[in-house]
Amino acid sequence: MVLGRPTREQLALADFPDVKIRLGQVNSAGEQKGVDALIVTDMIELARNHTMSDAVLLSGDEDVRVGVVLAQQFGVRVHLLGISPARANQSRSLQQEADTTVV
Question: How confident is the model over 52-103, as pLDDT tens digits?
Fold first, then answer.
């Protein structure tokens, strides 16, 4: 996100079928905030409504682990993706909670 607007790459990715991009707000320090809550909310709602069987998650943040756990309780399989060197940047408990992990 640049100056509160999606980048060209983010917009292109959002055009893919079955892909949902979640962008938070950029604070005065240039940090993106609020994305975790959006992801967790989506995972829980989609799982609760049985509108997904699998979720592919590109994250390393411990804060999304609760969404993984709750989605799995509704039968959703969660696949955690990482970009090398992902293991150094992903919460260990998030890795352990996911059904599969791929770098």
Answer: 999 999 888 999 999 999 999 999 999 999 888 767 789 999 999 999 999 8
pTM over 0.90: no
Quickly list DSSP for 10-70.
Answer: HHHHHTSTT------EE-TTS-EESHHHHHHHHHHHHHHTT--SEEEEE---GGGHHHHHH
Cis peptide, bond prior to residue 6, ω within 30 of zero: no
**CB-side neighbour CA atoms (13 Å) of 73:** 10
Backbone angles phi, psi at 79, to 5 degrees: -110, 115
**Both ends of the chain: CA-CA distance in Å?**
23
Predicted pLDDT of residue 76: 98
CA distance to 28, 40, 67, 70, 96, per residue, from 78 (Å): 33, 12, 10, 11, 11
